[in-house]
User: Fold this.
Amino acid sequence: MKAFCLRFLKNRGAVAGLLMFLLVVLVAATAPLLFDTSPWMMAGQPLLTPFEDPAFPLGTDMLGRDVAAGMAYGAQVSLLVSLVSTAVAVLLGVAIGALAGYHGGWLDDLLMRVTEFFQTIPQLAMAVVLVAIFTPSIYSIVGAIALVSWPPVARLVRSEFLSLRQREFVQAAVVIGLRPLRIIFTQILPNAMGSIIITASLMVATAILTESALSFLGLGDRNMMSWGFMIGAARTLLREAPWMSILPGLAILLTVLAINLIGEGLSDALNPQLRRRGE
Assistant:
């Protein structure tokens, strides 16, 4: 663990990404303390520019709502949706990939055909259809993003299991009579966790982009402020009040960039041999 942390900290980009991400988490966690009023409430004069009024450091929108409050509460939605949907997608993908990779045969063929079916459909288009069918809400958004995100995890886990099940330690576990489920959880899965963690970190960034796109299209939860909704609501005033779109857009950009930098740092720390080979 110490060696992993040292390798991760040597990557300056990863450290910068981690600090940016922790800042977003801090803002999201303290949003109710920083802003005691709802981000949907009219708080001041409409269309105040950033820093024009000390009470509204990031200005106000066309209805007089505090842009800073919207940014803070939007961080909550982005983190909640991305982390929960990624966790569900990873669990589903690991389960399907593990079964296919370990057992092989007809079960592998069946599960991979199902996986390929989901991969043939564009993720955003499928998410839009699912959210529209089940009524836009935080639950339908999380479910839709999870349902379109699991196939890459399943294929990755399957390939890892196909490789690892031929190793000597797995064959030894089979010989001594361990049950397949125990072999999967105690012998194979721990050795595949590095690749799964790296993939999951990148999936969080994709989930943020997908949630923002859904909210931009008007398919977000109407009871929760989000960065995508803020951009979509301000698109008609892009010339008159560009900060209303630029600020949440920058928040999405920096958060996704931070997560990608963390993913790159995790990849280097978990697979130092690949980094040396690339150098």
Remarks:
- Residues 2-278 form a domain with the MetI-like fold fold (CATH 1.10.3720.10).
- The chain has one domain: 2-278.
- The mean pLDDT is 89.
- The chain is about 75% helix and 0% strand.
